[in-house]
Design goal:
Layout: E1 3-7, E2 23-26, H1 31-43, E3 48-52, H2 59-64, E4 72-75, E5 78-81, H3 83-93, H4 104-130, H5 136-153, H6 166-176, H7 178-185, H8 195-205, H9 208-213, H10 217-228
Parallel strand pairs: 1-3, 2-3
Antiparallel strand pairs: 2-4, 4-5
Helix pairs in contact: 1-3, 1-6, 4-5, 4-6, 7-10
């Protein structure tokens, strides 16, 4: 029972996926869900998707995940949630074309870069989008300063070599949305300040899996405006 439009409070719980079938509970414009959509696309895993309205969550969805967020994976009666957990799980149950590093040191390195992202970047990104207008200049500086740590961590075409892997996919969704920062709050990630990251962004945009999962800057800009207005349009661009 795939659903492109977001299912809301009061909706009927869909029947479980047929045996052996993987289901993703998602939201089209959620960066955390996009992490897992990128893994699914890169690994070529057949699945079905049910989108969730994150402001009016179905009661049955909250029974599947106590945190009430996407992504959530369901297969053969088993539930897995949280984006990074979902992605490692996918590599575990579909070991062909493994994306998560097998080398312990490289895996640790990627985890440390994600820790930097969480500590130095993402909180200030969220405050830029959701915070008070008079705080934005301070948040913008801290965001740009924090992003320098990620610029410094990029020493190859992709974060772990000549091809994209887990860290690239786990970071990409926010970079895809940086155009929204420029149009909505006036913050730009420019090539003069971040030459390595902007070149990396161009390389990411050429990947088939990124093309399959991404939305255009125009869609993100439109969604950003609904987000800032407190009226997130999760079905943006879908026909009535």
């Amino acid at each position: 029972m795939p659903s492109e439009k977001a299912m809301k409070t009061g909706s009927t719980c869909p029947p479980p996926p047929v045996p052996g079938k993987l289901r993703l509970y998602s939201m089209r414009l959620c960066p955390y869900a996009e992490r897992t959509r990128l893994f699914l696309a890169a690994k070529g895993i057949e699945h079905e998707t049910i989108n969730i309205h994150l402001r009016e969550k179905p009661e049955w969805f909250l029974e599947k995940t106590p945190v009430g967020q996407v992504p959530v994976l369901e297969k053969d009666g088993k539930i897995v949630y949280e984006s990074l957990v979902c992605n490692e799980y996918l590599d575990g149950i579909y070991p062909d074309k493994c994306i998560t590093p097998r080398d312990p040191l490289e895996k640790a390195h990627q985890s440390m870069v994600l820790a930097l992202w969480d500590a130095k970047v993402i909180g200030f990104y969220n405050k830029l989008v959701f915070g008070k207008e008079d705080e934005r200049p301070t948040m913008a500086k801290q965001f740009v300063d924090g992003l320098q740590y990620i610029e410094n961590a990029l020493t190859q075409p992709f974060f772990s070599g000549d091809k994209a892997d887990a860290l690239d996919y786990n970071l990409w969704p926010w970079f895809e949305r940086f155009s929204m920062l420029k149009s909505c709050v006036g913050v730009e990630v420019s090539a003069d300040k971040f030459p390595k990251l902007t070149a990396w962004m161009e390389r990411m945009l050429e990947l088939t899996e990124v093309k399959a999962c991404s939305f255009s800057p125009e869609v993100h800009d439109q969604y950003g405006k609904t987000l800032l207005a407190g009226k997130s349009d999760y079905d943006l661009g879908l026909e009535e």
